[in-house]
Amino acid sequence: MTKIAPSILSADFLNLKQEIQDISLGGADLIHLDVMDGNYVPNITFGMPIIKSIKKISSIPLDVHLMIDKPERYIDDFIDAGADILTIHAEATTHLHRTIQLIKSRGIKAGVSLNPATPLDVLEYIMDELDLILLMSVNPGFGGQSFIKAVERKIQTLKNRISADYSNVLIEVDGGIKLDNAKHIADLGADILVIGSDIFSYNDVRARTEQFKILVSE
Questions:
Q1: List 22, 37, 174, 198, catalytic entry
Q2: Is 174 a catalytic residue?
Q3: CB 37 within 8 A of CB 66
């Protein structure tokens, strides 16, 4: 069953505790946390203190997506803050294999993210180390962007490769996912859908989360 991972990048931070409770009651499977450094991507979001605070109020696994340069510098810090899944960008680190091994050595799940124009070949010699592959379906840095249609073929290609040789690796898709395309993206092969503005821009966050859960379960 496809999982739903609401991204708090689009949440109301003045009402964050309530909105986390709402997505929890709505059936969210993961909480997606986009950490941006203003260097690797042209935006700055939040860091370890926010993650640590969310960990205190929610039992839902924290899916931490590091959109930062040289993420190997902060792996231990984000795990100590409460990350259950830690995903780094292949484009952001020189020693991808070493950094994935560091994450795995701490006993949590490790993921690699690829930007829309980054080919899947980057993963060829690391697939057997991964729990998750996050395909960006927008150019990273800001919420509310439109889904890049060319990524559909990328999802299908990766799904075929995983099904043949790496059946335990999950495919996560992040960017431009709305109620009108979520089922299609899930059917292409996505195991996890990251959804931001199309959940948190609605007055009833719980009901909107439930809509997505029902849709991808059909």
A1: 174
A2: yes
A3: no
Q: Which residues are annotated as a binding site for substrate?
A: 7, 65, 141-144, 174-176, 196-197
Which residues sit opposite 112 in a β-bridge?
88, 133
Known binding residues for a divalent metal cation are 32, 34, 65, 174
Q: What is the pLDDT of residues 197-216, one digit of tens each?
A: 999 999 999 999 999 999 99
| Strand locations in 90-215 (E) | 109-114, 132-136, 170-174, 192-195
145 conformational bin, left if phi > 0, alpha if psi -120 to 50, beta if neither: beta
Listed residue (45, 96, 44) closest to 70, CA to CA: 96
Tokens of 86: 């830690």
As a whole number of angstroms, the distance between CA 88 and CA 35 comes to 10
* Residue ranges of the chain with per-residue pLDDT less than 50: none
pTM for this predicted structure: 0.96
Active site residue 84: no
Q: How far apart are CA 65 and CA 169, in angstroms?
A: 16
In the chain the domains, ranked by start, together with CATH numbers, are: 3-217 (3.20.20.70)
Q: Can you say how many angstroms the Cα of residue 18 is from the centroid of all Cα atoms in its chain? A: 21
pLDDT tens digits, one per residue of 26-70:
999 999 999 999 999 999 999 999 999 999 999 999 999 999 999
Q: What's the Rg (C-alpha) of the chain? A: 16
pLDDT on residue 37: 95
- 22, 34, 63, 131: which one is catalytic? 34
Q: Hey, what are 73's tokens?
A: 């510098």
